[in-house]
Fold this protein.
Amino acid sequence: MLLLADIGNTTTVFGLDNGMDIGAVWRLSSSRIETEDELFVILDGLLRNMGSSLSEISGLCVASVVPRLNGSVNYFARKYMSKPAVFVKADEFVSVGLKTDNPAEIGADRLANVIGARECYGANAIVIDVGTAITIDILKDGIFAGGAILPGPATAMSALFSHTAKLPEVELFFEDHYFGTNTEDNLRIGIVNGTYFALQGIISNIIKEFEEKPRIIGTGGDVRLFINKSGFIEIDDPILTLKGLRSYYNRVKSVEKNTTG
């Protein structure tokens, strides 16, 4: 079995690929995996609960946007799995072309997203990943052509709360009306509905750059805020990043096997 890890600023998602599908998915606060031993305690317990163990794990593939946690994850793999973790980066193992000014600065999660989109949905796709940040990734004719980055809804809420004296933190959800009669509604309309219309405008203009209509895929922990209201998000794939990790890892191991064999 293959262990997959999408390490984000707020949340880390682990997935377990059994060779046929990603059958188990766990979401944890990224603050809980500060050391290799903490990570062992958590994963060992999760695996035991499903009747498995770390000894059955053949490898670990990681997409991380939190550099300070990379050492802990790699120490965990070496200490408890006796092998290094495989970290996604912009190299020869990425199965899509990279047409950006500086491929080395592309986030590992974004690389995994377009790899997963290419494998599962074809050569033309737009991936909207809604988390701490919202990333929009463009896959055009099998090439990662760039995208856009916005603040995520929770980040926007946190920024307003921490930089104002009277605005409260509110539960975020899509409002069915477009102006509010109280502060909480005002905030939700501005943050959630406003982000929705920003995405709608960006996506509608990106689509004009394609000769054929791309598949539009939503993923990430907060995509639920938009998925039922959005007429432009065609596919809801909560484990797209993990699918991209699996594809990247398999490509790495295939090349290694051909090189040594």
In short: The two ends are 22 Å apart (CA to CA).
